[in-house]
Write a structure and sequence with these properties.
The complex is a heterotrimer of chains A (267), B (353) and C (254).
Chain A (H helix, E strand, L loop, with lengths): L13 H24 L5 H6 L1 H34 L5 H13 L2 H12 L6 H8 L7 H26 L2 H9 L4 H29 L3 H7 L9 H11 L1 H26 L4
Chain B lengths: L4 E10 L2 E10 L3 E5 L6 H9 L6 E6 L2 E5 L4 E2 L7 E4 L11 H11 L4 H14 L15 H14 L4 E5 L7 H17 L3 E6 L2 H7 L2 E6 L2 E7 H6 L4 H7 L2 E14 L4 E16 L4 E4 L9 E13 L2 E7 L4 E5 L1 H7 L6 E6 L5 E4 L1
Parallel strand pairs in B: 3-9, 3-10, 7-8, 8-9
Antiparallel strand pairs in B: 1-2, 1-4, 4-5, 5-6, 10-11, 12-13, 13-19, 14-18, 15-16, 15-18, 16-17
Chain C lengths: L6 H16 L11 E7 L3 H14 L4 E7 L1 H9 L6 E3 L3 H9 L3 E17 L19 E4 L4 H13 L5 E5 L2 H9 L5 E5 H6 L4 E5 L7 E9 L5 H12 L1 H9 L3 E2 L1
Helix pairs in contact in C: 2-9, 3-4
Classes of the chains: A mainly alpha (267), B alpha+beta (353), C alpha/beta (254).
């Protein structure tokens, strides 16, 4: 008995394949350009420069902190948005997504007016606690969190919405108090959404430029993250800028590919 | 000591449903709440479990007040000694079978090892001792339902509620699971209540039936009592008999539409008149003879039931007659048309409403 | 008390920062009735005025400006941005543009000097470059890549001052805005920037011995879509009429 040929299903219509191919080129070509113009011979020398390592380290630290803060504050916020019933909920949801549509520099200006030394909240932070956020790494983290958290809130909210409430009811009938229900049933159920949101937030935080340079400023070792360094290097040593861009690209790719299969389920 | 008794009056409104049910159930008898979809069966169960608040009434289990609407007492579900087996089993997909069963124990403070040990015992009791680490997605419908049962039983509730326990199973598994379920229910040391829309399931699993329609109890009793003397269209349809609400006047009963049937010894007052389809005879022409009840009607539908045919006859007194296929052919009933009905007075069973 | 922010300056800040992120807003210029001028950030106010007057004198011709650090603009011209004119704040960056084949024959059209920019009312009592070494002050400077950054460092060296800047802004307007918003106490900018933000910031003069004279060259870009318009603009800037406008904004003559 000859085995039947594998079932191909519907197949991809040629028109869709062509359009998709153009779309794919859109992503591939810029990256290919980077690789093509990379100064492979001087790669090691550029990478060894201390301010390069400094900028990379700062970027990783800031984006990690931004992601952690986004999760810590974003998950409860997402839960409230998904399950809460209170007036102004829609407005709150719109506000949390605002940083996504705001040009990052505008976000930076807004942060200055809120958390700057003379800002709405900033002046009290300074007067009561002596906390000053601009020109500090904490300020860079704040700027990155501001632009990255909406990604987490959005995906987490969608996850909470789609979680089966009946499973939570089942847990309650088994004796789980609301806190235990959240920890042992709801959170595990939305874990894929949370993971996807965290990855998106991290990627956004890593690449943040406009809000960082406007709010936190630019100083090596303190607030000069990779994107800022690349921007400035472009004027003096473009090859170094390309090298740094490649490093950012590699690190991001590694994390995205590595995380995807483990946390987001099979692709 | 009022151990082993559920006394509840549950009245609440949910959308279009106005539920008002009183229950008094002791250990030892499984009670099935039977009713059509939308009657409020699931709502009743969820209210007993604490997932809905009651507007009026109270729920008292073993002398402990779980809910009292007037006094504002409402124990949340997690504080009630109630176990609920859901229709779609609702096993936690991210946990294995043994973890699912251990869930309730761990919520109550048991350590991981102890909880898993007990859970494994319960799974063995339902015949799944070899599937401890299977995920719900890897279990068949019947296996999943058994895990759900073990999960509810593991917390040793004093009230066990089952929501359409066999509905999600296919016909072949249903028979086997039903048998096992009956065994487990009988050995359960607390009060047990199940709801279902399937009369076969109700009769097979329960000792007492409570018929729920439109949020109200219309009939209660043993299976035999309920089926012998239906008190609602729903039960009559389930059992497959003709049922007429009527007013009795000595030797006749007056039906709702004004038609009169002769039925000696009918008594007086509001009654139900029950007629088995087999007692109904059909003729092409007006018959002569002893039957006192004779009228003309219209053959409106035929249903084949095994080796019999049920004929729906419309007219002043709608009635279903059960005849042989040969009779159908003889009478030419296949093309509809006028048909005469005759019914012996003695065949009409009249009982107080 | 929040600082009073002149709306125009805030708009200039946003526009400058936006272009800093997005590159030069290159004009269409294909049909010749539009001219794009890339100019150093310190020329913002003066060139806006020059642009209005030039448009008035040449009806039908629109002039559009892109202000950023000279180094950024030079790079853009070399990369082939369809601009007509390039004006930088020092000769070094203009030389980069010449070397890259972006422009021809630059000519100096103005000069500028540095000044300290401090917050309105000078609450910290800053008197000279030496004050920039005070650890309690928040100081911002231009990044080295920008001319104002190079000059600022030169001035500090000449004065023998070791400053601890908290931020290195990509262009001079960034320095001014940080001081204006009250985030920074002091910075080094151009005399013209202090004048342009008068009322919102104050200037402290830097003595000639320490100061650096910035020389501003202007040139027509090789890839200029409308060569005639570009030539005309350059000629206007260098003319007595143009020079008097520049003088009004605080620039010194060429």
């Amino acid at each position: 008995m000859t085995p039947s040929p594998p079932d191909r299903g519907m197949g991809v219509p040629p028109a869709a394949a062509v359009v998709a191919g153009v779309g794919a080129l859109f992503f591939v070509l810029p990256l290919a350009g980077l690789v093509w113009r990379a100064p492979w011979s001087s790669l090691a020398a550029e990478l060894g420069a201390p301010e390069v390592r400094q900028a990379l380290w700062l970027s990783l630290v800031c984006s990690a902190w931004a992601t952690a803060l986004s999760v810590a504050f974003g998950v409860p916020l997402a839960w409230v948005l998904a399950r809460g019933q209170f007036p102004g909920r829609r407005l709150l949801r719109a506000l949390t997504t605002l940083p996504m549509v705001l040009p990052p520099v505008v976000g930076g200006v807004a942060l200055l007016l809120a958390f700057g030394r003379r800002g709405l909240a900033g002046q009290w932070l300074d007067a009561w606690f002596g906390i000053r956020l601009p020109f500090t790494t904490a300020g860079a983290v704040l700027a990155a969190t501001f632009v990255a958290m909406p990604f987490l809130v959005l995906t987490a909210e969608a996850g909470f919405r789609s979680a089966d409430r009946r499973l939570e009811e089942a847990a309650r009938t088994l004796g789980a108090r609301p806190g235990a229900v959240f920890r042992r049933v709801t959170l595990p159920l939305v874990r894929p959404s949370l993971a996807a949101g965290a990855v998106l937030a991290w990627a956004r935080a890593l690449g943040e430029f406009g809000a960082t340079i406007t709010f936190a400023g630019n100083f090596p070792g303190e607030t000069q993250t990779m994107p800022l360094k690349v921007y400035l290097l472009l004027e003096t040593r473009p090859e170094a800028a390309i090298v740094l861009s490649l490093v950012l690209l590699t690190v991001s790719l590694a994390v995205l590919v590595g995380l995807r299969s483990r946390w987001l389920g099979s692709a | 000591m009022t151990a082993g008794r559920l006394r509840a009056r549950i009245a609440l409104d949910r959308g279009e449903l106005h539920l008002d049910v009183a229950l008094d159930i002791a250990i030892g008898a499984t009670v099935a709440v039977l009713g059509p979809n939308g009657a409020g069966k699931t709502t009743l169960l969820r209210a007993l479990a604490g997932l809905h608040r009651i507007a009026h009434g109270q729920v008292v289990l073993d002398g402990e007040v779980l809910e009292d609407a007037a006094a504002g007492v409402h124990l949340p579900p997690e504080a009630r000694p109630v176990g609920l087996v859901f229709q779609d089993h609702l096993l936690f997909p991210h946990l294995s079978a043994v973890e699912n069963v251990a869930f309730g124990l761990r919520c109550r403070g048991a350590g991981r090892a102890a909880a898993h040990r007990q859970a494994a015992e319960w799974l063995a009791r339902v015949g799944l001792g070899d599937r401890l680490n299977a995920r719900p997605g890897q279990l068949s419908g019947g296996q999943a339902q058994r895990v759900a049962l073990a999960r509810a039983l593991a917390t040793e509730p004093r009230l066990l509620l089952l929501d359409e326990p066999l509905a999600a199973l296919d016909a072949s598994t249903r028979v086997e699971v039903r048998r096992q379920l009956r065994r487990h229910l009988e050995s359960f040391p607390g009060v047990r209540l199940l709801v279902t829309h399937d009369p076969v399931e109700a009769i097979a699993l329960a000792d007492r039936l409570v018929v729920l329609e439109g949020g109200r109890v219309v009939q209660a009793g043993t299976a035999g009592e309920v089926t012998a003397r239906p008190r609602s269209r729903y039960v009559a349809d389930l059992v497959g008999v003709n049922l007429y609400p009527a007013t009795a006047a000595g030797d006749r009963v007056v039906l709702a539409g004004g038609a009169v049937l002769h039925a000696p010894g009918a008594g007086t007052g509001d009654v139900f008149a029950r007629v088995h389809p087999r007692a109904v005879s059909l003729h092409r022409r007006r018959p002569e003879g002893t039957p006192r009840n004779v009228w003309a009607g219209r053959a409106e539908g035929l249903d084949l039931e095994g080796d019999r045919v049920r004929v729906q006859v419309g007219g002043a007194v709608p009635i279903v007659a059960e005849v042989t296929p040969a009779a159908v052919a003889d009478l030419g009933l296949g093309d509809g048309g006028e048909v005469w009905v005759s019914l012996k007075a003695a065949e009409i069973d009249v009982y107080p409403a | 008390m929040p600082p009073r922010v002149p709306a125009a300056l805030l708009a200039a800040l946003l526009a400058t920062a936006a272009t800093a992120c997005g590159g030069a807003g290159a004009g269409r210029g294909a049909n010749g009735s539009s001219l794009v001028v890339l100019a150093a950030a310190s020329l913002t106010e003066a060139f806006d005025e020059l642009g209005h007057r030039f448009e008035a004198a040449h009806p039908g011709l629109r002039v559009r400006f892109s202000y950023d650090a000279s180094s950024t603009l030079a790079r853009q011209v070399v990369a082939g941005a369809p601009a007509g004119v390039l004006a930088t704040a020092d000769e070094l960056t203009m030389q980069q543009a010449v070397d890259g084949g972006g422009v021809d024959a630059p000519a100096v059209f103005a000069r500028n000097r540095l000044a300290l920019v401090v917050r309105q009312g000078n609450p910290e009592g800053i008197r000279s470059l030496a004050d920039l070494a005070r650890p309690d002050l928040v100081v911002v400077l231009c990044a080295e890549q920008a001319p104002c950054g190079r000059f600022g460092r030169q001035a500090l060296e000449r004065a023998g001052v070791r400053a601890q800047p908290r931020s290195l802004e990509p262009n001079v307007k960034g320095v001014v805005s940080k001081v204006l918003l009250g985030e920074a106490d002091a910075g080094i900018a151009y005399v013209t920037d202090v004048m342009a933000a008068a009322g919102a910031v104050e200037g402290v003069p830097i003595p000639d011995a320490h100061n650096v004279v910035a020389t501003y060259p202007i040139a027509v870009a090789r890839a200029a879509p409308d060569r005639a318009a570009a030539d005309a603009f350059v000629a206007y800037v260098r003319s007595p009429a143009g020079q008097s406008v520049l003088e009004r904004f605080g620039f010194q003559p060429a």
